[in-house]
Design goal:
Elements (H helix, E strand, L loop, with lengths): L3 E5 L3 H12 L3 E5 L3 H20 L5 H9 L1 E4 L2 H4 L5 E4 L5 H14 L5 E4 L6 H6 L7 E6 L8 E6 L5 H13 L3 E6 L6 H17 L5 H12 L5 H8 L1 H15 L8 H8 L12 E2 L8 E2 L5
This protein binds acetoacetyl-coenzyme A.
Acetoacetyl-coenzyme A binds next to helix 2, helix 8 and helix 10.
């Protein structure tokens, strides 16, 4: 029976995951390396619950109860001590994730499941640094976590059927729709999404169409809520580049090679929403989509 969840990493994905578990009654420990990101995460969660209260999804009373279910810790060893499930949502860096899993494996109770929210790093590789590979699984939430219905569940090579069933049932308890897939580069979500985004960037790079035109075609023509270039900015251009490199390396197939324009933009520090500029420029507090002057 899963009751206590420890989420490692308090960034966008980590705070969204902590928010959702707490909203559905689980006791959550949110872990990060310092107090500042933890305080920032709690403030973000409170703000996002306010959006849910405004929409009537949860009541004002639920807000305080949800927040009361979240405690914070700056130590992985301390934070995982009572966990039934650990969900790691740290930066997408293989060495960092391997280190976190070794630490969590050493300190978590026997029987505690270890999940990773990785978007593309091999679950099998992460599981291999632990002494419980059958209890390690991918639990890939989508951004924004409180809004998006999908949880992509990734079975590593050694993941047991019981672990998969527990995570399926848990995802349903969060009012999400689980989809179980196997552990190959990019899994399913990013294996399909990233080549589409890369192709959109190639279309811009080759002068087929402008930023607004590419996004409008996909929004109005395919009913996507965001066009691929806006979505790339939202995900982070550095994240898109990393995932494309995982696909390129993992399959050894040049069709996944990132567009040189994407490489240049990331090298120049244009990482999308989080850096204030990507294909569009972003001003805090404004929802207006302004195409970056580079592309006018
Ligand atoms: N917490 C709670 N609620 C939130 C929220 C958050 N963090 N962010 C947005 N919302 C809610 C809003 O309150 C609003 O609610 P209603 O629909 O009830 O009005 C709703 O979500 C829409 O928000 P906005 O009005 O602010 O903005 P929008 O209509 O433009 O929608 C969006 C925003 C939901 C992000 C929408 O544009 C969308 O679905 N975009 C695509 C997102 C997507 O594809 N995500 C997956 C990215 S890939 C990934 O995450 C995995 C990976 O590995 C890269």
């Amino acid at each position: 029976m899963i009751k206590n969840i420890t989420v490692i990493g308090a960034g966008t994905m980590g705070n969204g995951i902590a928010h959702v578990f707490a909203q559905f009654g689980f006791s959550v420990t949110l872990v990060d390396i310092a107090k500042e990101p933890l305080e920032k995460a709690l403030a973000t969660i409170a703000k996002n619950i306010d959006r849910q209260v405004a929409k009537g999804i949860v009541s004002a009373d639920d807000k305080q109860q949800t927040l009361d279910r979240i405690t914070t810790n700056t130590s992985i060893e301390e934070g995982v001590k009572k966990a039934d499930l650990v969900v790691e949502a740290a930066t997408e860096n293989t060495e960092l994730k391997l280190k976190i899993f070794k630490q969590a494996d050493a300190a978590a109770p026997a029987g505690c499941l270890l999940a990773t929210n990785t978007s593309s790093i091999s679950v099998t590789r992460i599981a291999a640094v632990t002494k419980r590979p059958e209890l390690v699984i991918g639990m890939h939430f989508m951004n924004p976590v409180p809004v998006m219905k999908l949880v992509e569940i990734i079975n590593g090579y050694s993941t047991s059927e019981e672990t998969t069933q527990t995570i399926i049932s848990l995802s349903k308890q969060l009012d999400k729709i689980p989809c179980v897939v196997n552990d190959y580069p990019g899994f399913t979500a990013n294996r399909i999404l990233m080549p589409m985004i890369n192709e959109a960037i190639y279309s811009l790079y080759e002068g087929v169409a402008g930023v607004a035109e590419i996004d409008t075609v996909m929004k109005l023509g395919m009913a996507h809520p965001m066009g691929p270039l806006q979505l790339a900015d939202f995900i982070g251009l550095d994240v898109c580049l990393n995932i494309l490199r995982v696909l390129q390396e993992g399959f050894g197939n040049p069709k996944y090679a990132p567009c040189p324009l994407l490489v240049n933009m990331v090298t120049a520090g244009k990482r999308g929403v989080k850096s204030g500029e990507g294909f569009y420029t972003y001003t805090a507090g404004s929802k207006e989509l302004v195409v970056s002057s580079q592309f006018l």
